[in-house]
Amino acid sequence: MFGFISASWKELDKGQQDRYSGVYCGICREIKTRASHTARMGLSYDMAFLALLLMSLYEPEETAGPLRCATHPLRRLDWVDNECVCYAADMNVALSYYNLMDDWQDDGKRAAKIMADAIGKSLPDIRARYPRQCGAIENCIAQLSAMEKENCSNPDEPAACFGRLMGELLTYREDMWAPTLRLMGFHLGRFIYLADAAVDYRRDKRKGKYNPYLAMGSEEDWPRWEEYLVLDMGRCTDAYEKLPLVQDKALLDNILYSGVWVNFRGKGAKAREET
């Protein structure tokens, strides 16, 4: 359900590309340290956005260094690390675990259960550190599963459910910025859910799987679906602009004002070509 909240790479300058890659590599490095090598397979650039947003808001002290890994064995890559990168790593692991368990419980995917068992060893520590966020992930996935089984015909209900999840993930601390981060995350989560539903429409129809647009009896209507997304992203960015962000603001702007649309339209075009 992720993969939409990433940068438009071609619009970044070299410094921004290096910064973005450094945060991504830092999250990957922390996932290996805090969970396992296997857990890194679920790494998403969406978590780099989460880390960058919180880093820009709270400006924690950073460490950095070069790294050579199995994915890039021939050259060293620079990584960035701080408390927000560690938080994004933990959230990535938790999301991966609960999503895999959902695939196992709903679809009986044996590979998902094997992967979840490998990742799950680190979950008790993550739950202990972030009980609110892990509880929100678990509750959201359970609620979405129930809505799918009921063939919920109102897309706003599952979209709002996922929005509440994202609101809790963006809320790193219960402080003065928490209401704004929750509001931003709520609309960002709605955007992700509805974008994913649009991209998966033809595949879900072919396979007879739940899709909120199919459940409501909607024909394929990309202009209308994009109108829904524009509304939610507009509300997301309204909240975003209320945060006192300076560090990495241009990179975050690229993601929210350009990258999300490049990804949505690119995934949509690919989905239409494949079916």
What does this structure look like?
- The chain is mostly helical and 275 residues long.
- 69% of the residues lie in helices and 4% in strands.
- The protein is built from twelve helices and two strands; from the N terminus they run ααββαααααααααα.
- The chain has helices at 14-34, 45-58, 83-107, 110-120, 123-129, 131-150, 156-170, 178-199, 201-207, 212-215, 222-240, 249-274, and strands spanning 63-67, 77-81.
- Strands 1-2 form a two-stranded antiparallel ribbon.
- Helix 1 (14-34) packs across helix 2 and helix 2 packs antiparallel against helix 3.
- The longest helix is centred in the last third of the chain and has 26 residues, at 249-274.
- The protein is globular.
Q: What is the overall pLDDT average?
A: 92
Largest sheet: 2 strands, antiparallel
Largest beta sheet: strand ordering: 1-2
Low-confidence stretches: none
> Which overall shape is indicated by the principal axes computed on the Cα atoms?
globular
Q: In percent, how helical is the residue content?
A: 55-70%
Radius of gyration: 18 Å
Content-based structural category: mainly alpha
- The secondary-structure element order is HHEEHHHHHHHHHH
Number of strands: 2
Strand content: under 5%
Straight-line distance between termini:
19 Å
Total helices: the number is: 12
